[in-house]
Every structure is written in C-alpha cells, then in structure tokens.
Specification:
Largest sheet: none
Low-confidence stretches: 6-28, 231-244, 313-322, 536-540
Number of domains: 2
Distance between the termini: 35 Å
Number of strands: 0
Shape: globular
Number of helices: 21
Order of helices and strands: HHHHHHHHHHHHHHHHHHHHH
Helix content: over 70%
Mean pLDDT: 82
Length: 540
C-alpha cells in the first residue's frame, strides 16, 4: 500500500540524458539495465503492498477503528504522491548545465517544505483530526490523531527519499534507487508482520515509517557516494557577500524563493490528490467501516491511474519537450489520445473485475472481514469511481504536456480553484445524497481541470476535436468491459454454486469476453499491447 509504487516504474525513462559521443551502445545497455532494475523494484513494492492490504483486511476488518486510521492514511497517501511528483517537476531545476538551483539548495528546500508537515501532524494532530474526520465518532478521531504523528514522520522521510531519488536519477544511479525502494518495501512488510499482534490498526502506519526510514537512509548514503552535496554556487555566495543585505537574510530569501519555485511547480499535484481527502472527510459520516471500504476502492482506482496515466505521461516528457519547441498543438494530439487509449484499455476491465467479481471474491475469502453488505458497498463505490478514473487519467496525461510547454505558472494558479470546486460539489452532493453523493461528485472537479488543461494545451478548436476523440475511446473500452463482465456476472450467478465460485466464474468469463471484444473492436491496440508484453526488445 505504498505510494512509492505509483511512479517508480517510469523513473528510468523520465530523466533526459545526453550520452557521450562514441558510447551509444554502452548508453543503450545502461538504459536497459536501469529500466530492468526499476521494473523489478516496482513489482517488488507492488507485491509487498498487496500482501499488506490483504493481511490488514483479514486481521482488522472494517470498523470504526480502521475508519479512523484510513482517514490519516489518506493524508499520507496524498502527500506521498506529491513527493513522487517532485521527481517530475524538479528535474529541470537541477539538470546541468543551466541548473536553477544546486543540490544543496534543493535539500534545504525540502527541509523547509517538511516543517509544516511536522507541525500539523505533531503538535496540531488533534485539531487536524477534527478537520479531516468530522463525521467520525470521538473514538475514531482519536485513532486518526494517534496515527498522524507516525505517518507524519513517514511523510517527511518519504519527501527526503524522493528528493534523493531525484538527485540519483540525474546522476544515472538507477540501481541505487531501485535497491532503496525494494529494501524499504520489504522492510515495511517485515515490520508489518512482526508488529501486527502488538500495534493493532496502527500497524500499517508503523510499517510505512519503517519503510521510509530504510528508503530515505539508503538514498542519503547513495547521494553521498555519488557526488558531493553541493551548496550554493560561487556566484551566489559572492553576491551575498557584496550585497547590502546581510548574508543570513539573503540565504533565507533565496531558500524561500526556491521553496516557492518547487511548490509552485508541484502544487497542482498536491491539490489534485487532496481532493480525495475532502471526499473522505464528507464520507466519514457513513456507517462504521464505510470509510475503510471507500479507502480500499480509491486505492485500487488510484493505482490504476498512477500505473497507467502518470507513468506513461512521465516517460513521454523528454519527447514532448523536444516537440513543444517546434509545434505546440501537435504535442497534445501526438501523445494524449494514444496514451489515454492504452490506459483505458487496461483500467476499464480492472474496474469491471472489481465490480463484477472482485468484491464478491474478497467477501468469499474473508467473510468475517468484509461482510456481504460491505462487499456491495465496495462494488457501489467502485462504480461511482469510474468517471473519476477517466477524468484522472486525462489529468495525468495533460499535466506533463503543460509542463513540457512551459506552463508551470498556469498549473500553479489552477490549484486553489480546483480545491474550491471540490469543496463546493462535494458539499452539495453530500447534502443531497449523503455519502454516495459525496463519492458520486468526486469526478466533477477533475473533469473541470481536464477541460481547462485541454484548452490551455490545444486551444478551443483543438480541444473540441480532441474531446470527441477521447470520449469515443473512453466509451468504447468502458462499453466493451461493461458488456463482457456484465455477461460474465450473469453467467456466474446462474450457476447452482457457492457465491465464491460464481464470482470466480464471472471473472474468468468476463476476461475472456473482454479479450474477444478487443479483438473485434480494438484489434490494433490489442496487437500492440500483446507485442510489447511478449516481444523482447532488440539489443541496443
């Protein structure tokens, strides 16, 4: 359940590098090894996260105590994705020649960003729990407040780990990055198993802290071994000595400016992921266990978005940046529809599996942890999250495009309106339809953001044409998945068998029917996907 899994897989492709002349073959082999290392790390962390999710649900179930923990965990997950987005937005600031800030100043900036996290999750943990979990009982909010200091420490360490990974990636130390994340994930899993009998529902928090300690320590050692942690450049120090401003005040002003630059480029990612914290706050008034079920549904959908939209978008940034210097409009048309198409090809059946079979399978395997009514709630939340998934995929493809076009200032300006829209629509949906209304309104703010980004990147005329193309692709894959897994569900429930067997049959039949549907209606995309999975790349 680690947020570090979300963007690691594309790290090796996301950093633009210029190989030295005469070393093309060596550079190609190095890039292949880097990609393999990052892929192994990604699968290792995903496996560790899945094991923890199953163990947590099986041991602690869904109740008011787990609700309290998952409200705090939602804040941790939000900040975790923000940390990972630093690897995308901060690279242009650090790459030499022409770096805007040094590695030393970048480290100091991350320290300044961490200060409010420490204050909010430490001394102000109780008021923060009241703010983000207003609908929970007093006992549930006490669990939230108790989880915040532990998760807050993990958040700070994860921030520093992401910063270290950024520096190591620029220095081509991808094996070190992969080793750090794999070791951290495995350490977190070991800690989870060792502590689950002693720390109760807070076990996952201590697991995240253990993982963050190991990962950040590994990255720090790697940075120190890879090169000096440079401070301010000589020109800046000279200006500080010669200027009329005292050196200490100059240093503070430079640090504040660096912090504003880094946060300004990353604020939109933080705001986008805060949207779920807002939805969860309104949804915390649900019956005991409802917040936990909603958190599981969201984690499933968000992993789909991050594993397809964010990863594919990050890996395309170098090409998009080069293209943006020549033809702005073609960048969107050449990257977004293609990536969105393949992301929907994967995300649509995954959501359909959860709705048609997955929730029932979990209930069948863990009936004491997830009741039949909670399995139905999980299905409902998953269905309500389908439009959010579509909008979130678009956002995660369009944000890298705007960054490639040099529109970071516009993205920063959109962060606050995005949060305000989310507050308004969630409050309205909650007042009209309760928790289901709050979850059902979750897609509106991301859709507004996607529309604004599309217009900003392609212009009004281009956005209209692209909207038609994107809507056609979304409806095509969602329709195939709905028919395939709907038919699988109907076939399964018609069998005179147990609910567990019916769900398994529904999943298998749905997958086979979806493959047939792709072969008929989306054969080119299916052939490309199969080719990527089964064909070995040619030697560099």
């Amino acid at each position: 359940m680690s947020t570090q899994t979300l963007t690691l897989g594309s790290e090796a492709q996301a950093i633009p590098r210029a190989p030295a002349a005469g070393k093309a073959t060596a550079g190609g082999e190095g890039k292949a090894r880097a990609g393999m290392a990052m892929s192994v790390a990604t699968f290792t962390m995903a496996a560790a996260s899945a094991i923890q999710a199953v163990l947590y649900l099986g041991r602690f179930g869904t109740n008011a105590r787990t609700d309290g923990f998952f409200v705090a965990f939602a804040l941790y997950s939000t900040f975790g994705v923000f940390c990972q987005s630093l690897r995308l937005t901060s690279v242009p600031l650090l790459v030499e020649p022409g770096a805007r800030i040094s590695v030393g100043r970048f480290a100091a900036t991350l320290g300044l960003i961490a200060l409010p996290v420490v204050v909010l999750t430490g001394p102000l943990a109780d008021p923060l729990a009241q703010l983000i979990a207003p609908g929970l009982s007093a006992h549930g909010r006490a669990i939230t407040a108790a989880a915040l200091p532990v998760l807050g420490a993990a958040m700070v360490l994860q921030l520093w780990a992401a910063g270290g990974a950024t520096v190591l990636a620029i220095r081509d130390r991808f094996t070190t990055i992969a080793g750090g994340y794999m070791t951290g994930a495995l350490s977190g899993l070991v800690a989870f198993v060792a502590l689950m009998d002693h720390t109760g529902v807070q076990t996952l928090g201590w697991s995240m802290l253990t993982m963050s300690v190991v990962t950040s320590g590994w990255m720090l050692i790697g940075v120190r071994r890879s090169g000096r942690l440079a401070g301010a450049r000589a020109g800046e120090l000279t200006a500080a000595r010669r200027g009329s401003t005292p050196r200490g005040m100059h240093t503070v002003s430079v640090l504040a400016r660096d912090c504003a630059v880094v946060m300004g480029r990353t604020a939109i990612y933080l705001a986008f992921n805060v949207l779920f914290v807002i939805t969860l706050a309104f949804g915390s008034s649900s019956a005991a266990g409802g917040t936990t079920v909603l958190s599981y549904a969201y984690l499933f959908a968000s992993y789909l978005v991050a594993g397809t939209g964010m990863a594919l978008g990050m890996s395309s940034i170098p090409d998009m940046t080069r293209e943006a210097r020549q033809r702005q409009g073609s960048v969107v048309a050449a990257t977004v529809p293609r990536g969105f198409r393949y992301a929907m090809l994967i995300a649509a059946p995954a959501l359909a599996v959860l709705i048609a079979a997955g929730a029932a399978l979990v209930h069948g395997v863990l009936p004491r942890s997830l009741s039949a009514s909670e399995a139905h709630t999980l299905q409902l939340f998953a269905a309500l999250l389908v439009p959010w998934t579509v909008a979130a995929l678009l956002v995660n493809f369009l944000l890298p495009v705007l960054l490639a076009l040099g529109r970071a200032r516009l993205l920063g300006a959109l962060a606050l309106p995005l949060v305000l829209v989310q507050l308004a629509v969630t409050a309205l949906g909650s007042s009209l339809f309760g928790v289901n209304g709050a979850v059902g309104a979750f897609w509106i703010a991301p859709s507004c953001l996607a529309a604004a980004l599309l217009v900003a990147a392609a212009g009004r005329a281009g956005a209209t044409a692209l909207t038609r193309e994107l809507a056609r692709d979304a409806l095509r894959f969602l329709g195939i998945a709905a028919l395939a897994f709907g038919g699988g569900w109907a076939f399964g429930v018609a069998l005179p068998a147990s609910e567990l067997v019916q769900a398994a049959v529904a999943g298998v039949v749905g997958c086979l029917a979806y493959a047939v549907g792709l072969w008929i209606l989306a054969r080119p995309q299916l052939e490309v996907l199969v080719g990527v999975l089964v064909t070995r790349p040619a030697p560099a």
